[in-house]
Amino acid sequence: MWDIEAPTNDIWEISHSARCDDLESLKKRGCSLTKIENPRGGIRIDQNKTVTNRKKDVAEKLTPEQITQIQPQKLSLTLRSGEPQTFELKFKRAEDYPIDLYYLMDLSFSMKDDLENVKNLGTDLMREMQGITSDFRIGFGSFVEKTVMPYISTTPARLINPCTGNQNCTSPFSYKNVLKLTDKGDEFNRLVSQQQISGNLDSPEGGFDAIMQVAVCENQIGWRNVTRLLVFSTDAGFHFAGDGKLGGIVLPNDGRCHLENNMYTMSHYYDYPSIAHLVQKLSDHNIQTIFAVTEEFQPVYKELKNLIPKSAVGTLSSNSSNVIKLIIDAYNSLSSEVILENSRLPEGVSITYKSICKNGVEGTGENGRKCSNISIGDEVLFHISIESQKCPSHGKPEVIKIKPLGFTEEVEVVLTFICDCPCAKNGVTNSDQCSEGNGTFECGACKYVFRIEPPELEKGVLTSCSKDEVRTEDLDHCGPPASTGHGRCDCRKCICDANYTGSACDCSLETATCLAKNGQICNGRGTCECGACKCTNPKFQGPTCEICPTCPGVCPEHKDCVQCRAFEAGEKKDTCERDCSYFQLMKVKDRDKLPQPADQSYPLSHCKERDANDCWFYYTYAIRNDTKEVYVVETLECPAGPDIIPIVAGVVAGIVLIGLALLLIWKLLMIIHDRREFAKFEKEKMNAKWDTGENPIYKSAVTTVVNPKYEGK
């Protein structure tokens, strides 16, 4: 409170500390009540549309914009320091409120049997949801993993079919938006029936990448301002921020939409999002998450649920046969609880909640933000108090927003701060009562306008006021050139030297520090602001936007597009006209005709790449005057085919020669063996001993008889 009664003379020496006091103290000092300024805070309701009493069976159908579940919708609060302002907020669950449900499914190989049961989910779920709402839409998306090692196999064959054996699987991908939200259940069934399972190497999946894209790509997904449900179905864990380093991915997830042709295109550039990042984006986009996971991973996802407000976990059967019951139970659980949250509060402002829930149950503190067990048609109240402890430095109104988690409706609260007395609006500038017209006569006192003189005067040399009367922030802001170095201060405003700008003359207009090695400003990947590069392409970083830690290199980056445009082949053959029209293509007859680095004054890269048939093709990539140019040799350099006849003859001759060699070796071994045996025999023969003596008991079998009459005649 201020005493604005003027003194009787023209010397104003009443300090603020003497003039500002509580009401009773001012009265005791003899201040007249008519001369005391005592502004008070207040509340004004600017928009107060009544909550909707809607019945499902009524013929008249309301659009989501016509349904109101929270009241009031906009207020203006005038805050005086230390004086809280309290208002009442009413919430009522509307019957037949529209619902958008997006089914995000893991299509890694282990979910093969689950995919079969989900193929009829569209019509079945729409039939079941008729008991909850007559305005229901459903969409479908799928995910696998980042398409780099070590998450998937990058061999050519595994990139086409990542599954083993005779399994026919589709190529791996990060996230695919298969079906935008629609009210046609049969369309859901048709498109989901066309989906194929895929595969990856590691057990955790890249589901967080998919959740981020579903949340931030509102137009591509087709979200309306209604109840938004995201069903996340998997039988595995998840990668999160930091895991991307395994694949050489170090750039943090930027939380932006990167869907092209319904495919997430930046999975190999950006890391997985963190849990806190997902919480922020899901809250910002009013999405309630239902984790439908198998029994094995229930503990993991229950811990995750505790970190993500307005989320639920359901146990998915091994083949997803219970998914409809799981979704309905989780929705009933989520919709029966309302939790209020508010946007960031200005400095010095605090907020408290008190809830009056069903059956008069009251909650305070953190429990004052929420009510549970709310049925359709139930009405709950919240008493919200907002208090300011100090005035903001800028003195401008602030806006905070309060909303129930998972709902698109919100309450806008405009805060205006009482930082001056109303009499300040009637101040007289250049008043004769203030040192010969050098100040403003305001609220019974003089408010002086001062000016810091040229740099040669020391800080604090003022006109029409003393150093002690100058505000500290004035002196800090309007210091001599030593405090900014590139200009001078003229009454709290910097007058900058040439080639400098900004409120503190700290922004250089020179671009020399932004020149990259190729002579381009910020390597052609950013803009030069205040003498420093601001990289516009998120893949590039560094002082001149020349560092790209996740870039595959110029040659691999443009390989597919050069191949499809020059030779009508490669992975982008079918989408060449749409995806590869960003450069000018010129063909040359041979490699000698390609532009050479010594002849160019702009960045030029020579590339040698190989296609699926092991043929090499050569090209150059350059950026000249913001135009991308590609020169390519018009003929492929393929290895010569094999000469079959010499190969066959060589094989036959080799077999014959090997056979003859084996036969000769066998014959040689047999000869050596026979000679060894014969030599052994001869040696034993020579060593044998023969005795010529007669056996004494030997009797000859021959008997000789002599005829006595024989006379030898």
From TrEMBL:
Disulfide bonds: 163-169, 217-257, 391-607, 419-423, 434-446, 489-494, 491-522, 496-505, 507-514, 528-533, 530-576, 535-545, 548-551, 555-564, 561-638, 580-615
Molecular-function GO term, any one: integrin binding
Domain Integrin beta subunit VWA: 4-421
Alphabetical keyword list: Calcium, Cell adhesion, Cell membrane, Disulfide bond, EGF-like domain, Glycoprotein, Integrin, Magnesium, Membrane, Metal-binding, Phosphoprotein, Repeat, Signal, Transmembrane, Transmembrane helix
Domain Integrin beta subunit cytoplasmic, first and last residues per copy: 667-713
Integrin beta subunit tail domain mapped to chain residues: 555-643
Biological processes per GO annotation: cell adhesion mediated by integrin; cell migration; cell-cell adhesion; integrin-mediated signaling pathway
GO cellular component, one term: focal adhesion
Localization in the cell: Cell membrane
Membrane-spanning intervals of the chain: 644-666
InterPro entries: EGF_extracell (IPR013111), EGF_integrin_1 (IPR040622), Integrin_bsu (IPR015812), Integrin_bsu_cyt_dom (IPR014836), Integrin_bsu_tail (IPR012896), Integrin_bsu_tail_dom_sf (IPR036349), Integrin_bsu_VWA (IPR002369), Integrin_dom_sf (IPR032695)
UniProt membrane topology term: Single-pass type I membrane protein
SUPFAM superfamilies registered for this protein in UniProt: EGF/Laminin, Integrin beta tail domain, Integrin domains, vWA-like
Family: Belongs to the integrin beta chain family.
The protein's name: Integrin beta
